[in-house]
Amino acid sequence: MIEIKxxxxxxxxxxxGRLLSEIFEExxxxxCSGVSTASINAFVADQLxxxxxxxxxxxxxxxxxESCISINDExxxxxxxxxxxxxNADLVKIDICASWKSYxxxxxxxxxxxxxTVEANKLISVAQEALDCGIAKAREGxxxxxxxxxxxxxxxxxxxxxxxxxxxxxxGRRLHEDPEIPxxxxxxxxxxxxxxxALAIEPMISAGDYKVVIMDDGWTVKTADxxxxxxxxxxxxxxxxEPKILTRRKSGEMRYL
Length: 257
Ligand code: MF3
Ligand code: CO
Fold this sequence. Notes:
This protein has helices at residues 7-27, 37-51, 118-136, 144-157, and strands at residues 54-55, 68-71, 74-76, 91-100, 103-112, 161-162, 168-170, 177-181, 198-201, 204-206, 212-214, 221-223, 229-231, 234-237, 244-245. The protein is of the alpha+beta class. A hairpin with a 2-residue loop joins strand 4 and strand 5 (103-112). The longest helix is centred in the N-terminal third of the chain and has 21 residues, at 7-27. The structure holds 2-amino-4-trifluoromethylsulfanyl-butyric acid (MF3) and cobalt (II) ion.
């Protein structure tokens, strides 16, 4: 069952999203060569606390950290680690989910460390464009799979792979609610979108094949062919007109922050 959020729930999710997007803005200067993923996570933990946000990942199925940080061929769920230091040209994905007054928002961005390769830059742009096109379909009266189809089209038109094994999701008091939102599929399927639905839309893509494997740590998801991977995520509310994106700052330049 997809819960329709009322005004007061949406207001809390909005605050969660606004505060999360501030954290992403504040952490961009940390994305540089030599910084450990554990220290990025420590910064995130500190900022969450300062803003009155509660991590939704810490304690989730035994996960112990306030962020997931995944590098290069790692797609999602990378575990922060002191020994793991960012290097020039790494493609790093940071995923943070947290609640404000019990209502969650979920956000992820892909960054390049220092000098970016052409391939990494392109992959990030494709993921961002797929996210924008997916969000544009999150409108009253559209079908859920119109979002999936829009994402797949952008990704595959650009010669990249759409990961099948993980999907976006509904969100609210719980981090993962109905519906599941695959990043591929035929249009015109599934439920019809209604105002008040809250969706975490998150294209996960690779420069090569879409198959992924889970590492021995039990969490980190990597591409099976070791190709570069990108992931971006926003939390969105379906309204009577434009989709309301909770996890973006208003200014055009900060579109993905
Ligand atoms: N943010 C991730 C998502 O989009 C979930 C992270 S929870 C964790 O679903 F436990 F895996 F970290
Ligand atoms: Co998510």
